[in-house]
């Protein structure tokens, strides 16, 4: 199993809005490896950028820690994987998943993927004038990394918080970057 490592330039953005949007299908990725509390995936609604979603490697009031799992959000979202993207809905057991820990990244094997109907929220973030968003399960098990290095659940994050994200440029075909004018909202 390849364990390629590279560096990505993560930044922080300000949470501007969190809106309940009803039920939809969310994707949990269960890796066949132990993840640290600060490892996660980059996922989002558009090619403008992605939110860092951390492993469930911490206890909450309603969930025990699951050091192998990432609750990555709505199945329609882009999953950023070292320069290319794919849809969360396309991830399967046996795939290699790129996880990020700050600027470091590595590949881990996917053991299984769980897709289930859950209540969802849309989080909107402004990162230096670039607007990005993600659709996440409205659950204590969904964590993001704040600028101060602490993890925050989607249930506890407030407008004005600064969370880790990765900026990108829209314009992809089958996950690979192409030159085109594209508007995504």
TrEMBL record:
InterPro entries: DHQS, DHQS_C. Keywords: Amino-acid biosynthesis, Aromatic amino acid biosynthesis. Residues 14-184 form the 3-dehydroquinate synthase C-terminal domain. The keyword Amino-acid biosynthesis applies. PANTHER family: 3-DEHYDROQUINATE SYNTHASE, PTHR33563. This is 3-dehydroquinate synthase II. It comes from Salibacterium lacus.
